[in-house]
Specification:
By secondary structure, the chain is mainly α. 48% of the residues lie in helices and 7% in strands. The chain is built from seven helices and three strands; from the N terminus they run ααβααββααα. The protein has helices spanning 8-15, 20-32, 38-45, 49-61, 102-116, 119-136, 146-157, and strands spanning 36-37, 65-69, 84-88. It has a three-stranded antiparallel beta sheet. Helix 2 crosses helix 3 (38-45) and helix 3 (38-45) crosses helix 4.
């Protein structure tokens, strides 16, 4: 979604997940991490194959899932049609009302830190904030995963994405703090 405006397409796509059958089918496909056939998705969601196909195709039209065809092992006459399969779409969708542009804000903040030569101090503050946040969430299923979250987000934003014991490399920095 563009942060300059609220995309009606993103809102409409996400609104499709309000339907419990569609949400269940989306969860099945997304949780499998690969290709899922209509029959498999229908069985896991507890609905008919026809109903599952209808809802899965709606999710494809909205861009939440992608579809393709599973290659057939048997070739030639009598081999039947290839099975249609679904997988989670590669792109991300998010809706923020009112629209917010955190990427630009982070970029400006990184530029300011660099211009002021305050990389080490910014790192200390960020580590302190991480420790406070981690302390609030200790014991839940998300505790301890902050490094992997930072790594994936910085890679997507253009940084090297490393999260070492000493530092994390941020995008738009003139140098990688881990010396890579």
């Amino acid at each position: 979604m563009s942060s300059d405006d609220v995309s009606g397409g993103d809102i409409e796509a996400l609104a499709l997940l309000h339907d419990p059958v569609r949400r269940s089918l989306y969860d099945v496909v997304a949780s499998r991490g690969g290709e899922v056939g209509r029959g498999e998705a229908a069985e896991a969601a507890g609905v008919s194959r026809t109903l599952a196909g209808h809802h899965l195709d709606k999710l494809v039209e909205a861009g939440l899932l992608e579809s393709g065809f599973r290659p057939q092992e048997k070739k030639g006459p009598g081999s039947g049609r290839p099975a249609k399969v679904y997988r989670r779409a590669r792109g991300e969708r998010s809706v923020s009302l009112p629209p917010r542009d955190y990427v630009t804000l982070a970029s400006v903040l990184a530029d300011v830190v660099e211009v002021l030569g305050a990389e080490e101090r910014a790192e200390e503050v960020a580590r302190g904030a991480g420790a406070r946040i981690g302390g609030r969430h200790r014991g839940n299923r998300w505790s301890g995963c902050w490094a992997s979250a930072v790594t994936s987000r910085t890679r997507r934003a253009g940084g090297c994405g490393c999260a070492t014991a000493r530092s994390t490399c941020w995008p738009r920095s003139s140098r990688c703090w881990c010396a890579r």
